[in-house]
Amino acid sequence: MREIEKIILFWSPRILAILFAFFLSLFAADVFSENLDFWQKITALFIHLIPSLLILVLLSIAWRCEIVGTLSYFLLAIWYIASSWGRFPLSVYIVITAPLFVISILFLINWFYHDELHYKN
């Protein structure tokens, strides 16, 4: 495997997870359009940011242990589908779960090539 392929393979699931957490965080901005007082808005904002925080916590664990990232992002996607099936159009499930599945697959590939990707550590 060439050096550029190693770099792309190592960084792609990590960068995608950060971008996905940012994407989910954008949905938290709707609390500012609600007619709430300051502390209610802060509380609602925190509650809306929990999924993004979960994605980042999982990323911090998966950074060194790719199999944890593989399993956790996969199970998170399955959990989202199972817990909210029928409440949204199919496009919502695709937009939310497809990145989770892609991140999971990329962490799985990272896990297979762990020794090659972490040779400098």
Keywords:
121 residues; mainly alpha; 5 helices; elongated
Word description of this protein:
It is a single chain. By secondary structure, the chain is mainly α. 79% of the residues lie in helices and 0% in strands. The protein contains five helices and no strands. Helix 3 packs antiparallel against helix 4. The longest helix is centred in the middle third of the chain and has 25 residues. The radius of gyration is 17 Å and the shape is elongated. It starts with a helix and ends with a helix. The mean pLDDT is 92.
Topology summary:
Layout (H helix, E strand, L loop, with lengths): L2 H24 L11 H25 L3 H19 L5 H23 L1 H4 L4
Encode the helix/strand succession as letters.
HHHHH
Fraction of helical residues: over 70%
**Annotation field: number of helices:** 5
How would a textbook summarize the main sheet? none
In whole angstroms, how far apart are the ends? 18 Å
For the CA atoms, what is the radius of gyration?
Answer: 17 Å
Brief sketch in words of this structure:
The chain has 121 residues and is an all-alpha fold.
